[in-house]
């Protein structure tokens, strides 16, 4: 029941994202949102539709979620260093650049995506349109990276905040993506500091997502996490949620 509801919502969203795209891309997206080639095609076709660059936002933009994100960037986490933020599966969204721009505390924001097309578009965009951060020590970068391999790029306990807007949803709803979603969640918990959090923005019903998070974020003697949810709001008849996952010290047996 829940599964078919989320499939229907996914199809609606993809249809909206693919307005004027060829229908074969819509089919590819519905089944293969875990594949690099699908997203390379998506961002290439999106780009060819307009002469000037425009950020593409899955669900909604920074304004809808800034009050959930900015309070988590606190000075007490580790006072002398830059706070580390990762936008995982950033696409061509303005979320990461907006965190960089609006954080009063110094941050290093890494926007990472598996699609080199999306990464290149964002690199060219920020080069052409300089963004001035609130804190002059803040840094912004775009990297091509497969988030199932986060541990190869970042040390354990190195990130303060990971934001995920639609990326885990894309993996969970793909034919072969569930294993990757499990892997990504475990990697996030590994690279997050004990004071850090993972925020997943999603339209998935809490009954389904909380069960998945609570199951996959625990591994006896290895990993544990606290999981919470709050509503972001309703947009075009769909309710959106923010799932917060926070690593918890593992109890040794
Ligand atoms: C639904 S889109 C969301 C994009 C962006 N976060 C937004 O809000 O518009 C999912 C994104 O995840 C990226 N992605 C899919 N699998 C990935 C992986 N294994 N590692 C990194 N990015 C991935 C895709 O390229 C795509 O840009």
From TrEMBL:
Q: Which GO terms describe its biological process?
A: methylation
The record's principal subcellular location, in a coarse class, is mitochondrion
Q: Give a GO molecular function annotation for the protein.
A: methyltransferase activity
Organism domain of life: Eukaryota
Q: Which residues form the Methyltransferase domain?
A: 82-199
Q: Which reaction does it catalyse?
A: N(6)-methyl-L-lysyl-[citrate synthase] + S-adenosyl-L-methionine = N(6),N(6)-dimethyl-L-lysyl-[citrate synthase] + S-adenosyl-L-homocysteine + H(+); L-lysyl-[citrate synthase] + S-adenosyl-L-methionine = N(6)-methyl-L-lysyl-[citrate synthase] + S-adenosyl-L-homocysteine + H(+); N(6),N(6)-dimethyl-L-lysyl-[citrate synthase] + S-adenosyl-L-methionine = N(6),N(6),N(6)-trimethyl-L-lysyl-[citrate synthase] + S-adenosyl-L-homocysteine + H(+)
- Listed GO CC annotations: mitochondrion
Q: Which Gene3D superfamilies match?
A: Vaccinia Virus protein VP39 (3.40.50.150)
> Is the keyword ATP-binding assigned to this protein?
no
Which InterPro entries does the record cross-reference, listed alphabetically? Answer: Lys/N-term_MeTrsfase_sf, Methyltranfer_dom, SAM-dependent_MTases_sf
Looking up Pfam families in the UniProt record yields: Methyltransf_31 (PF13847)
Q: Which UniProt keywords apply?
A: Methyltransferase, Mitochondrion, S-adenosyl-L-methionine, Transferase, Transit peptide
Function as written in the Swiss-Prot or TrEMBL entry: Protein-lysine methyltransferase that selectively trimethylates citrate synthase (CS) in mitochondria. Seems to conduct trimethylation in a highly distributive manner rather than in a processive manner, and thus introduces a single methyl group per binding event.
Q: Which family does it belong to?
A: Belongs to the methyltransferase superfamily.
Q: What is this protein called?
A: Citrate synthase-lysine N-methyltransferase CSKMT, mitochondrial
């Amino acid at each position: 029941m829940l599964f078919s509801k989320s499939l229907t919502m996914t199809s609606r969203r993809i249809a909206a994202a693919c307005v004027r795209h060829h229908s074969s891309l819509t089919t590819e997206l519905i089944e293969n949102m875990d594949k690099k080639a699908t997203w390379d095609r998506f961002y290439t076709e999106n780009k060819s539709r307009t002469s000037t660059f425009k950020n593409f936002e899955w669900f909604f933009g920074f304004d809808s979620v800034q009050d959930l994100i900015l309070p988590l960037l606190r000075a007490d986490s580790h006072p002398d260093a830059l706070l580390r933020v990762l936008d995982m599966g950033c696409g061509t969204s303005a979320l990461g650049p907006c965190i960089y721009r609006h954080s009063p505390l110094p941050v290093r924001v890494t926007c990472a995506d598996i699609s080199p097309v999306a990464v290149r578009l964002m690199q060219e965009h920020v080069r052409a349109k300089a963004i001035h951060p609130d804190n002059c020590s803040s840094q912004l970068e775009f990297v091509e990276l497969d988030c199932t391999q986060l541990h190869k790029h970042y040390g354990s306990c190195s990130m303060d905040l990971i934001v995920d807007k639609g990326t885990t949803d894309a993996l969970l709803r793909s034919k072969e993506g569930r294993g990757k979603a499990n892997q990504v969640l475990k990697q996030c918990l590994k690279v997050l500091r004990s004071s850090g959090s993972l925020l997943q923005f999603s339209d998935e019903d809490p009954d389904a997502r909380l069960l998945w998070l609570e199951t996959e974020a625990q591994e006896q003697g290895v990993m544990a996490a606290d999981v919470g949810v709050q509503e972001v709001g309703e947009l075009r008849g769909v309710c959106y949620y923010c799932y917060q996952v926070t690593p918890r010290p593992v109890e040794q047996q």
